[in-house]
Amino acid sequence: MSEHLKDLHPDLSEPFPKHVIEDEVAEAHGRRAIPKLVAVLALPELPDDQRAHALRVLNGLLSTQEHKTNAVAEGAAPPLCQLASQCRDDEVRRLSCSALASLGQVMAGRNGIVAAGGLPVLTEALQTTPEQAAAALKSFAASNDGAAQLNLERAAIVPALVTLLSQPTDPAFTLTAFSNALSTLEGMTRTDDGVLAALDGGVPACLVALARRGLEGDLKFEGRLMELLQLVATCLEQICHHADGKAACRQAEAHKVLAELLTLQHREIIKHAAAALMGLAVEKESKVNVMLYAGVSLVRLMRGSDAELAANARDTVAAAAEHLEARRTAEMLLSMEERELLLWRGPPPETPPDYRYHVDLPKFTPQAK
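Predicted structure:
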């Protein structure tokens, strides 16, 4: 019986070889899918079109936390980082950065990317695949441990992000790439080290210029402009509440842009812009500018029905009115009742009666000689 079976089945090799067949790329299924794809991506001589196909399948599978953790455990980070930095094919680099962005959404993936030297790779990729590389850095910035990892490389990451945000829009440098870069900066500037790195990299001036592009420049008619301006306002808010950030934002004339953001019909932008102006109004040199450029909008918000926006505006006006010249501007905009509640902190003191100031002086009479 065995001899007859040998004749019918001459191939005595294992039905499922453990190694990857280098000249054959096939989709695996079930629990074998991710390990097979990771092994395929690690092949040194694989054609770029087959690499791209394997990356598309892998990105489709990285939709759950379990699959992402499984990919990290199978060692997906090193080959992805290598492809993102060394592959000549643009599509392979984009797909590799997209896969790294998915892995960066879990702690194990972030640790694996850092261990594989992925942060310098993603920083360099901001100039070649900006949208996908910035999305990978954004996944780091969304968590506290990831933002701490970014701040360890802040000397290289912040200038690269500023360079990206200064680029004109084209098919490579899209509004999504700008939004991803701003989200990364927003996560990094939550800490003191991140704000100091942002100041060293000229982030306040970059944010003001980007807001100008959105309000009156080449980004004015973009569909997702409000999301971009909200991120700008959030970053400025966090920098303006830093002791060293106030002076940098004043020198970049951030108060002018923030005053214009208060006029937009977008609640989140108004909230963060008013909070940023509140941080600026604490500084003595910025009090007059805050009331001069944003006083009318702040008083309008004070009188609105939104309690949170009214509280931000009220605190900003109260802080700015500590300066005498800014106080005069505030008194012209406020009613008598608002002055009592906000500036005088109660009713004004009564004018004392005249008799209290009436003094009878003795008349000098020269002595007769």
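Summary: The mean pLDDT is 86.
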